[in-house]
């Protein structure tokens, strides 16, 4: 009797897998017929989560792999906006079933990089980062998207710094921290950025990289001082600066501080001090 029950369970599981394969084939056939005169459509069907679980005999990891296979064999260069939306939802489903799915977060980072698909990419990358505590790459992609696509340098820098403890290679860790420091400079005022980069320097191991971070923090402090003196000059003289040396001529500062990176300081179009390279 026990053997018969086990056989019945295996039979039901096998039938569910066959049914899943049939549904997958029918969905592709439907898509190819619908657009045969133009091109083959890649993704036109996304089943609700409960049906995907049922078709995988209750195995959420198998359900993730079935949807992941559909994504892997699709040719995204032929997809239209509607199909890409289906792909984004399928990838969210894979992440829901198995957030640690490596191929899924790689594809999300590579493909879902347009504004309307970015929320799905960020959802997948955040879940992958949480599910893979020793993997720094989901956090790098997440931070990259925050900086470049969501225009959030502060959020991007915070995510990069979250990835640093996961890195085992010292040179890679330095590169990540350096990138975070640059984004901090773009997201915070010079004074606040100086404090944050200074704390990064305090936590760094003695050596060249610690000195490098200290140099970045110092030039930020000098820039903040120049910006404060520029405001003071405007209050006294009622007009903006046209040359930084006017601060020296007005007796507000003894000399323009040297830039540790030898790039110097300049004025932007509003007469505000900036790094010369930023201008």
Which SSEs are present, and which pair or pack?
Layout: H1 2-34, H2 49-55, H3 60-72, H4 81-97, H5 102-111, H6 118-131, H7 137-148, H8 153-163, H9 170-187, H10 190-203, H11 208-237, H12 245-249, E1 265-267, E2 273-275
Antiparallel strand pairs: 1-2
Helix pairs in contact: 3-4, 4-6, 5-6, 6-7, 7-8, 8-9, 9-10, 9-11, 10-11
Describe this structure in words.
- The chain has a domain at 26-132.
- It is built from twelve helices and two strands, in the order ααααααααααααββ.
- The chain has a two-stranded antiparallel ribbon with strand order 1-2.
- Helix 8 (153-163) packs antiparallel against helix 9, helix 9 (170-187) packs parallel to helix 11 and helix 10 (190-203) runs antiparallel to helix 11 (208-237).
- It is an all-alpha fold and 279 residues long.
**Unreliable stretches covering 5 or more consecutive residues:** 1-23, 26-40
Shape: elongated
Helix content: 55-70%
Strand neighbour order, sheet with most strands: 1-2
Rg? 27 Å
How would a crystallographer describe the biggest sheet? 2 strands, antiparallel
Structural class: mainly alpha
Strand content: under 5%
How many runs of DSSP E, i.e. beta strands?
Answer: 2
- What would the average pLDDT be, to the nearest integer? 86
Short précis:
With 279 residues, the protein is mainly α. The protein has twelve helices and two strands; from the N terminus they run ααααααααααααββ. It has a domain at 26-132.
